[in-house]
Design a protein that fits this description.
Strand order of the largest sheet of chain B: 5-6-7-3-8-9
Distance between the termini of chain A: 32 Å
Number of strands of chain B: 13
Number of helices of chain B: 11
Shape of chain A: globular
Mean pLDDT of chain B: 85
Helix content of chain B: 25-40%
Low-confidence stretches of chain B: none
Radius of gyration of chain B: 24 Å
Number of helices of chain A: 12
Low-confidence stretches of chain A: none
Number of strands of chain A: 0
Shape of chain B: globular
Order of helices and strands of chain B: EHEEHEHEHHHEHEHEEHEEEHEH
Order of helices and strands of chain A: HHHHHHHHHHHH
Oligomer: heterodimer
Distance between the termini of chain B: 35 Å
Chain lengths: 263, 327
């Protein structure tokens, strides 16, 4: 575990240097958060039908979505891509650490470091000023923290699985774009998942993506009651284990055919 | 059992091909073409512990492929290979702990971090104890003069500085074997000399076995007693550089600096191969005429100011071998 943690922490520290990117990201998140909130505000004012979530829960969902947007595995770690393109991956294969563990640690860092730079200031402003309510209870707050850790691990697992496809395609942008669209839709990034039609709910619940956003956010607001937390987290954990298994399998197959070109 | 042993290594790569132009691109959509390239075609050699071996050959000869097989990165199609009794690709994790590598054109340091943090990271990756790490690092910092560089981010290092740091990075876990792929490429003369001095010391004092892949024959001449020459995936020469030279040509050279332009310089036992103003290069066969006899004849007949006797430059010899073995 020590090497994996060391790689994680080095990449994490490297990424914390990018203050300007974090600031720009923060501004964008505020902007989109306000727009999305206004849309829902208008929707709640004009609609009299009962909605699947109350307005306060939607506000929580939206602001947390903005705060943790960078957690989504929507682009690949630039250093890994560069190492495969340039052949520096040869060095990584000379280390006494498995390629999967190495990439997982890097992906985990490149998913979480930018989030911390954005989430902390965003929450600090959105809670007192922009209608982001506090967690429903102490239990909900604790469960939310566990669910966010699970979300980070799931995100890194998906990112690493996607990274392994680079062993076959080298550039791999296409497959990432497909994934990003699917993920925005089914993680709750675009519209909170409870608003999806009834007939879509079984699919939404079966896919792994809700563990990235929907599950932790609804735990915070109490929309998922404490009694339902465990089954939800268990499903996220299962998916994470399956995706890690798939990634390991692909790496084992891919490295057998990997050709590091040139001298 | 030899320290490093390779027997009949064969590795074939598939190279995709398509005809140029849009027509070729369209045909390529339906019909994939390619050919097989034998990067290694029965490569065998044995290396003793503590040797410093030069590995040379033109681009695409199979050098890097060999190094990758020895490093456990590539699995050969056939043939066997053991390094310190282990098969690299079967026992990868144990194997890579005993080797270090520097690929001159690529860095193993983390671009965005200060050098010392890359070193700490490697310490954790290899699980080196803190006290041991401090000792090895202090030694490397002293020999390679890294003191002022440690807190600099890697992206701000000059190439020579980066190479010294890369060398240190490859040695932090005290490997018994070091693979070097063009460690002096792009370096200025003082930096080259510093790297060579360091490698010589490393080999003599620590007994680290070094496999040096390079196009810079001065590196080889300065460092390696034994040379492996590879082309088209086959080992063409395994011996000293002097043997290699003798195999191709026994000729020697005389370079004359004359007072006049020496239009009339000629000798029955020597041929003029190049004129540069008042400097004339002659080639002769030392089995037909001794150097002293030739020199006394030349100095008697011409206004010679200065002269030197030398071997043909090694580059010329290698170029001749590459050409002779071209398929």
């Amino acid at each position: 575990m020590r090497p994996v943690f060391a790689i994680f922490s080095a990449r994490f520290r490297g990424l914390l240097q990018y203050r300007a990117a974090a600031l720009a990201g923060l501004a964008t998140q505020f902007f989109w958060g306000l727009i999305r909130l206004m849309i829902f505000d208008a929707f709640y004012r004009s609609s009299t039908a009962p909605q699947p979530m109350d307005y306060a829960q939607v506000a929580v969902y939206i602001w947390l979505g903005q705060a943790f947007f960078a957690l989504l595995p929507q682009w690949m770690d630039g250093e890994i891509q560069e190492s495969l393109r340039s052949g520096t991956v040869a060095y990584e294969m000379l280390r006494p650490v498995g390629l999967y563990e190495l990439w997982f640690a890097r992906n985990l860092a490149s998913r979480t470091a930018p989030v911390i730079l954005r989430a902390v200031p965003l929450l600090a402003i959105a809670i007192p000023f922009l209608g982001l309510g506090l967690p429903a209870s102490w239990t909900a707050a604790g469960a939310f923290c566990v669910a966010m850790v699970a979300a980070a691990l799931l995100s890194a697992a998906i990112a690493t699985l996607m990274t392994t496809t680079l062993l076959w395609t080298v550039s791999g942008e296409g497959i990432w774009q497909l994934l990003a669209l699917t993920m925005w839709l089914f993680s709750g990034t675009l519209i909170p998942l409870p608003f999806f039609p009834e007939w879509l709910q079984p699919l939404v619940n079966a896919l792994p993506f809700r563990g990235l956003m929907d599950v932790p956010f609804r735990i915070w607001s109490g929309h998922i009651p404490p009694s339902a937390v465990l089954p939800n987290l268990a499903s996220v954990a299962c998916w994470t284990a399956v995706i890690i298994g798939m990634g390991r399998l692909l790496i084992a197959r891919g490295t057998r055919k990997l050709v590091v070109q040139g001298g | 059992m030899p320290f490093i042993e390779a027997e009949h290594l064969v590795k074939t790569f598939h190279v995709s091909e398509r005809e140029p132009g849009i027509g070729g691109a369209l045909r390529g959509l339906f019909h994939r073409r390619g050919r097989e390239v034998r990067a290694l075609d029965g490569v065998s050699f044995a290396i003793r512990e503590g040797e410093m071996l030069g590995y040379i050959g033109p681009n695409g000869a199979g050098k890097s492929t060999t190094v990758k097989v020895l490093g456990g990165i590539l699995v050969p199609d056939s043939g066997t290979c053991t390094v310190m009794g282990r098969v690299p690709w079967k026992d990868r994790v144990a194997h890579v702990r005993t080797i270090g590598a520097v690929f001159g054109q690529r860095t193993q340091l983390w671009w965005g971090l200060p050098v010392v943090e890359s070193f700490d990271l490697l310490r954790d990756i290899y699980g080196v104890a803190a006290a041991e790490h401090a000792r090895v690092l202090a030694e490397l910092v002293e020999v390679l003069e890294l003191g002022p560089l440690l807190s600099t981010p890697v992206r701000q290092l000059s190439l020579g500085q980066r190479m010294r740091c890369d060398l240190a990075a490859s040695l932090l876990h005290s490997p018994r074997i070091l693979f070097l792929d063009e460690p002096t490429i792009g370096l200025d003369a003082p930096a080259k000399l510093a790297v060579r001095d360091f490698l010589r010391k490393l080999n003599r004092e620590k007994g680290v076995t070094v496999l040096l892949t390079t196009h810079d024959l001065d590196d080889i001449e300065a460092l390696c007693e034994r040379v492996l020459l590879i082309n088209h995936g086959r080992i063409l020469h395994d011996g000293t550089l002097a043997d290699l030279r003798r195999r191709v040509t026994g000729e020697k050279r005389v370079v004359l600096d004359l007072a006049d332009d020496g239009r009339d310089v000629s000798d029955p036992d020597a041929t003029v191969i190049r004129r540069e103003g008042k400097r004339i290069h002659l080639s002769f066969d030392p089995t037909r005429v001794t150097a002293s006899a030739l020199i006394s004849r030349l100095t008697a007949n011409h206004p010679v100011r200065d002269l030197t006797v030398e071997n043909p430059p090694i580059e010329e010899i290698i170029a001749r071998i590459y050409k002779d073995t071209a398929a």
